[in-house]
């Protein structure tokens, strides 16, 4: 009887964290087949999406505990217009936020390639900055402290 109780407790310790993870929503995906206007409509329909303008782009932002996502829409004056970029930030177990970008280009392919190269370079900078912040925070903590 006691062994059964321990087995049940052990299973609960395994299953409860897994259930919590399963309930965490996934970030919305970038479906290029929807087109520029279709993606805008899709993002406007998502609960919790916040819209703003940043760096000349229309930005839709959403987030959860372990991720944040931004969708950026080029405007008519941008050389790669029309284009939509998605940048996902994911919190790793190390507490570092990694950035990864994808995009959909519906206009000039060479301008879109330049835009995506800039996004990828930005991903590296953002990830490295987060890594440095986490390392600095850990260096300040006492090895004997909580």
Overview of the molecule:
45% of the residues lie in helices and 25% in strands. The chain has one domain (28-140). The longest helix has 32 residues, at 109-140. It is α+β, with helices and mostly antiparallel strands and 146 residues long. The protein has helices at residues 2-23, 35-45, 109-140, and strands at residues 50-54, 57-63, 67-73, 83-91, 97-105. It has 3 helices and 5 strands; from the N terminus they run ααβββββα.
What's the structural blueprint in terms of helices and strands?
Blueprint: H1 2-23, H2 35-45, E1 50-54, E2 57-63, E3 67-73, E4 83-91, E5 97-105, H3 109-140
Antiparallel strand pairs: 1-2, 2-3, 3-4, 4-5
Task: Describe, in short, the structure shown.
Helix content is 45%, strand content 25%.
List keywords for this structure.
single chain; 146 residues; alpha+beta; 5-stranded antiparallel sheet; 3 helices; 5 strands; 25% strand
């Amino acid at each position: 009887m006691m062994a059964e109780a321990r087995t049940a407790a052990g299973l609960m310790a395994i299953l409860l964290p897994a259930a919590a993870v399963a309930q965490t929503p996934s970030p919305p995906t970038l479906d290029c087949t929807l087109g520029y206007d279709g993606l805008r409509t899709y993002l406007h329909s998502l609960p919790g999406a916040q819209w703003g303008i940043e760096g000349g782009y229309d930005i839709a932002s959403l987030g959860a505990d372990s991720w944040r996502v931004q969708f950026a829409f080029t405007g008519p004056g941008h050389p790669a217009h029309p284009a939509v970029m998605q940048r996902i930030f994911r919190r790793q177990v190390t507490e570092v936020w990694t950035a990864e970008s994808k995009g959909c280009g519906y206009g000039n392919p060479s301008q879109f390639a330049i835009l995506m190269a800039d996004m990828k370079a930005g991903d590296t900078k953002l990830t490295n900055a987060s890594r440095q912040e986490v390392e600095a925070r850990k260096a300040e903590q006492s090895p004997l402290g909580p």
